[in-house]
TrEMBL record:
Its EC number is 3.2.1.28. This is Trehalase. Keywords: Glycosidase, Hydrolase. GO terms for cellular component: cytoplasm. It is an enzyme of class 3 (hydrolase). It comes from Sparassis crispa. Belongs to the glycosyl hydrolase 37 family. SUPFAM superfamilies: Six-hairpin glycosidases.
Length: 783
């Protein structure tokens, strides 16, 4: 039983009329001074120092007296508990946290039972808290109360039994987004400069300011002077910051890249700069990311944070202007790489939700975003080396030299060992000499060309792209660029009266693409004439024809990547084929074939897996799992497919898939102390992922504080697809097989799903044993 509070004899506490809403955020619920009314009078009023004419005090807290009531706990009103915060945390962890990870989960062997003293009985009468969900919520609430310096609390039982869907959605909206918010300026540098991926040993912050921003450089120099304890190193980048040799030279001195800022009043009659806030993915990813930000913005828009999403577009505009592209991430080692392009859809989604009171300002903002997207399109995606002029397909093919420095220290050991042995060196010695150019290995250069391309694709890593990514016209990239072309054309026609002047001067890519046109050094300038919608719709139509020619496979009813060097389709089955539905470049017939013949290849109990087991191949010690392969499920693939299916009128399929993913998320949230991870094993319904660097968003103490960026967004977006009945069902962790009335077969594995309901503890224990995916039985359904 939780400890009974020691308090002045005769003081009794019950609920009063002015408590905060039971489901309010922690700052409201636990912040400030609580007041509670009394439930009975006292026969010895002045005994033990109690004066009925004064407000009774409980150490530093005051409690209002009320009329006399029964001493027994009321049976009709909401139940509340009187709790000593620190002592109850100690008891809960000691009794229930048997594995010592400061979380209460179904893998813990505690009794899953604790008696708490009720507020109406002054803590002398108790009520049992039962089950993993209530106990983990209790631990979370105690941690939040501790955050607000509360020594004791009156806790509503309703916060422990809250509908898990409502609780998770509320935490994402009111807590997680705020915890993931960063700003690059004098006030935010200490947090944003921390880089878990930095292996150089230097922890003092370093910021790189782009060329052409003297006011920004001076601002950061002033911050360095005013805050000497930071040891801030301010560096100004050259005019061309993405030169591969220069970027490689920064590997030993990594730093954060400056982003967009606003000029604001100091309050003392002067002006200063202030960073525009943005959302980071979380965990080891503590910087602004490209495609993560798109999906995060969708969640922000659902939750009403339009200004935050708009600010992230402002950062992308800044990056295109100063760094030449929307960067993979805002660190120096990402200067040569971008990621999948989503800027046009992101900007249009936000534009449609801006306050209509200032139409001209909104239009001017969208104009800046579309202008930036046009520049990115011409100078990055349809420029060599990413463009293959022969096919007209674009590729992930970034510049760069050497070994990517942001990876885990041992990530490339198995690749480098044969080369190190060849030169009679240790892996570390070989890495240093290869990176500085002392040792030349053309085969290794080719390997890292493809490795950088994999990272630019966002799908790092997968056997789909192994040793060939830079040569592939991937179906996902073609779909995204088709969407760019349509979006830009539509914006020019509908918003800018079919005429868009480009303010920056850059070269336009030839159209239609051909080997001859790209060999011609003459390029039309962006300022020669205004952009019209017609050329963009022509580009979109041309790309659709190339997609159908090179990527569509009629016999397999699926889109595939095209190898521009080997000049053949790569028959790896990827769920990104459904991005064509999101982009709108599939015909109605192609859509029907995709859904009728191919969707079942990717659909498993927990949603959509990244690829099929057959395409991935067998897994062994020498060929370990990759996190973007089967059986893993990621938020981008889910959201893109949901939206694409809805776009083509297949709402029921979208709802079913959304339900599957949210069911998996909700069961993990209920069973594992509120966890919201980066990714899932969708076959085993588990966040206990052992591939590559493991999972992110799972290493927290007592209460989840961030979740993970795009997983948070997937939950909020996914809820918008569910009917009221589906939302109720997922809140009770009802299996999709029960909701949709059939058992899902697994076409890509010999393992068969059981239609019976399993013990979730057994499922979790099986996951902890990490059995071989190639041999162990697939975990049966939970709940």
């Amino acid at each position: 039983m939780a400890p009974v509070l020691i308090h002045p004899t005769g003081v009794n506490f019950i609920e009063e009329q002015h408590r905060p809403d039971v489901n309010s955020d922690a700052a409201t619920y636990y912040g400030g001074q609580e007041k509670f009314s009394r439930s009975r009078t006292y026969s010895a009023s002045f005994a033990h120092g109690y004066n009925p004419k004064r407000m009774p005090t409980f150490q530093d807290e005051s409690y209002m007296r009320s009329r006399r009531m029964s001493h027994d706990e009321k049976g009709t009103g909401p139940r509340r508990f009187l709790i000593d915060v620190e002592e109850t945390i100690r008891v809960v962890l000691e009794q229930e946290d048997t594995d010592g990870d400061f979380q209460i989960s179904i893998t813990d062997a505690g009794p899953k039972l604790m008696a708490l003293g009720t507020a109406t009985s002054n803590g002398f009468k108790s009520f049992d808290i039962r089950g993993n969900y209530m106990l983990s919520n209790l631990l979370q609430e105690l941690a939040l109360a501790r955050d607000h310096n509360r020594k004791r609390i009156v806790l509503d039982e309703a916060r422990l039994t809250e509908n898990p869907v409502d609780r998770l959605s509320r935490m994402i909206k009111n807590s997680f987004w705020h915890s993931l918010t960063r700003r690059i300026d004098g006030d935010g540098l200490e947090i944003i400069c921390a880089d878990p991926k930095n292996r150089t040993g230097r922890v003092n912050p370093r910021i790189y300011v782009p060329h052409g921003e003297p006011a920004m450089a001076e601002y950061y120099r002033r911050v360095a002077r005013e805050k000497p304890h930071l040891n801030l190193d301010v560096q100004v980048l050259p005019p061309k910051p993405d030169d591969p040799r220069f970027v490689k030279s920064l590997n030993t001195k990594p730093g954060i890249l400056a982003l967009a800022m606003n000029e604001v009043d100091t309050g003392r009659g002067g002006k200063t700069l202030k960073g525009i806030p943005f959302i980071v993915p979380g965990a080891r990813f503590n910087e602004l990311y490209n495609w993560d930000s798109y999906f995060i913005s969708l969640g922000l828009l659902v939750d009403g944070y339009t200004k935050m999403a708009k600010g992230m577009v402002d950062h992308f505009i800044f990056e295109i202007r100063h760094y030449g592209k929307i960067l993979n991430g805002s660190r120096s080692y990402y200067l040569c790489r971008t990621q999948p392009p989503f800027l046009t859809d992101m900007a249009l989604q936000i534009y449609n939700q801006l306050d209509r009171s200032d139409v001209d300002a909104n239009r001017a903002w969208l104009k800046r975003a579309i202008q930036a997207a046009v520049k990115e399109y011409h100078t990055v995606w349809v420029a060599e080396p990413r463009m293959d002029p022969k096919t007209g397909l674009s590729r992930y093919r970034p510049d760069g030299l050497g070994i990517p420095p942001e990876t885990e220290a041992t990530h490339f050991t198995h690749i480098l060992e044969p080369y190190a042995a060849k030169h009679g060196l240790s892996v570390l010695e070989f890495s240093e000499r290869y990176t500085d150019g002392t040792i030349k290995e053309p085969e290794l250069d080719e390997y890292f060309l493809h490795d950088r391309a994999v990272r630019e694709s966002g799908h790092d890593t997968t056997y789909r792209f192994e040793k060939r990514c830079a040569n592939l016209g991937t179906i996902d990239l073609q779909a995204l660029l088709y969407k760019y072309e349509v979006d830009i054309g539509t914006a020019i026609r509908e918003v800018f009266d079919d005429e868009l002047e480009l303010e920056e001067d850059f070269s336009l890519a030839p159209f239609p693409p051909s080997v001859e046109s790209y060999a011609n050094p003459h390029r039309e300038s962006s300022k020669t004439k205004p952009q019209s919608s017609a050329i963009w719709f022509e580009r979109a139509e041309f790309r659709k024809r190339m997609i159908d020619k090179y990527c569509w496979n009629e016999s397999k009813s699926l889109y595939f990547d095209y190898d521009t060097v080997q000049e053949k389709q790569i028959l790896y089955e990827s769920v990104t084929a459904f991005w064509t539905l999101w982009a709108g470049c599939a015909s109605e017939e192609q859509c029907w074939k995709l859904i009728s013949n191919s969707l079942k290849k990717f659909e498993v109990l927990g949603g959509l897996v990244s690829g099929t087991e057959e395409s991935r191949g067998k897994i062994s010690l020498d060929r370990p799992n990759r996190q973007w392969d089967y059986p893993y499920a990621w938020p981008p693939h889910q959201i893109m497919t949901w939206v694409g299916l809805e776009r083509y009128g297949y709402l029921e399929d979208a709802q079913r898939l959304a339900y599957r993913f949210l069911y998996m998320m909700t069961t993990a949230f209920v069973d594992f102390n509120g966890v919201v991870p980066e990714k899932f094993d969708a076959v085993r319904l588990s966040h206990l992922v052992d591939a590559e660097y493991g999972n992110q968003g799972v290493d927290f103490k007592m209460v989840p504080r961030e979740g993970f960026g795009w997983m948070n967004a997937a939950y909020q977006v996914g809820l918008s697809f569910l009917s009221t009945g589906m939302r109720r069902a997922v809140s009770t962790c009802t299996s999709p097989e029960v909701v949709f009335g059939h058992v899902l077969s697994q076409p890509m594995t010999s393992q068969q799903y059981s239609a019976s309901i399993s013990d979730p503890l057994g499922l979790a224990m099986e996951n902890l044993q990490l059995p071989s995916l190639a041999s162990g039985p697939t975990a049966p359904l939970a709940y």
